[in-house]
Structure formats: C-alpha cells, structure tokens
Amino acid sequence: MDDAAAGERASGGDLRGAEKKEAFFQAAEAGVHSFAFKRPDYNSPLGRIACHLAGTDSTRAIVEVLDPGWSGSLHYHPNQDGIWLVLKGHVRFHGPNGIVRGEFGPLEGILQPQNTRYWFEVIGDEEVWLLQIGGFPKGEAAAKRITLDPEKAKKLGSAKFDMTGKGPDPFVSMAYEHLADKPPSL
After folding, report:
1. I need a surface site. Which of 33, 40, 46, 102 has the fewest CB within 10 A?
2. What residue spans define the domains of the chain?
3. Angle, to 10 degrees, between the axis of helix 17-29 and the axis of helix 3-10?
C-alpha cells in the first residue's frame, strides 16, 4: 500500500463500521498528552509569565505567573470564554466603569463569557499563579484580544513558556499587547 493509500485508510476514507469507529478514536487519542506546571526559573521584566500547559483547536490551559503589583488593562475577547482559577496569591477582577467583579484567593475563580469586558490585578505582596482555561466556540484561530485601554496596554505583555513537553525549549517568546512597542532584550 502506498503512503497516499495508507493516509486515506488511516483517516477513515475507505473504512466502514467498527474499523471506522476505531480509526476515529485512535485519531482523537493521538492528541492525548500529560503536562505539568513548574514555575520557570525566570523573572519577566514585564511582571507576567504565561505558561502554556495544553490546548486543542477549541480549548487552552495556561498558568499566568504575576508579580506583586501587576495590573492588566480593560479588554475583551470575541470567541473566547475564560475560566480563571487562582492557584496561589490573590487577584481582583474588574469590569468597566469601576465595577469590581470579585476578589479571589487560592482555589477561587471567575467565569468570563466571550465579549465580557474585564481586567484584573494582583492584590497583596505575594506572587500569583492564575490558571486560565479558555474555550473557543469557533476555534482558537478566531480568538482575538480587543484592547479598550490602549495607553495602559502599551506597557503590558508577557514572557511565554511552553510546558506541554512538545517543544525542545520551554521559553517561546516575549509578547506585547501593543505591538508598536519594542520588547526588551532577554
């Protein structure tokens, strides 16, 4: 059997019944992988490290490591529902116009449906570990971050680390919320 025919068969092209069902499950299960969070031995000049744990086309899990005093900017995400859970430290989530949505400590959190305007900040003098699970109804490629406070966003960004175990180097990049700014050298 040539490679094209093998690929067609593996994708279920000429399979029927139980064979097709088994190929369906095997294709899905090929994406199963374990992961672990370990705080990177790195201090971001931006006060924020985004540690990518796992993801698919429709969901993503990251842990944000935030320095004391870190504060985000008002924004929203079309096509992204967000579930936030504090693992360590304390945060305060805000909405527009001075609305405080809540203060959260370890094992407490908040759901932010898509198009919810929000920002959050670290409260207290302890580093925060904040788990974010993002769901993408139209796929992650359609997700966006729409900034509503461009002046504050110019100062924000994060160092990104890949904790999935799939890449050779856990450090991925420095990302800025306002791309006109030049990143500092590492």
Report:
1. 33
2. 1-32, 48-176
3. 90
Which contiguous run of DSSP H or E holds residue 66? strand 59-66
Structure tokens at 26: 């095997």
Identify the CATH number of the domain defined by range 48-176: 2.60.120.10
Extract the tokens encoding 177. 């919320």
The amino acid sitting at 115 is N
Residue 74 backbone phi and psi in degrees, to 5: -65, 130
The DSSP H or E segment spanning 113 is none
pTM here is: 0.78
d(CA 131, CA 62): 6
| Ranges assigned E (strand) in 71-137 | 75-76, 81-88, 90-94, 100-104, 109-112, 119-123, 128-135
User: Taking a C-beta distance cutoff of 8 angstroms, is the pair 51, 40 a contact?
Assistant: yes
Judged against a pLDDT cut of 60, whether residue 127 lies above it is answered with yes
Mean pLDDT for 89-108 is: 97
Q: Say what the pLDDT of residue 185 is.
A: 38
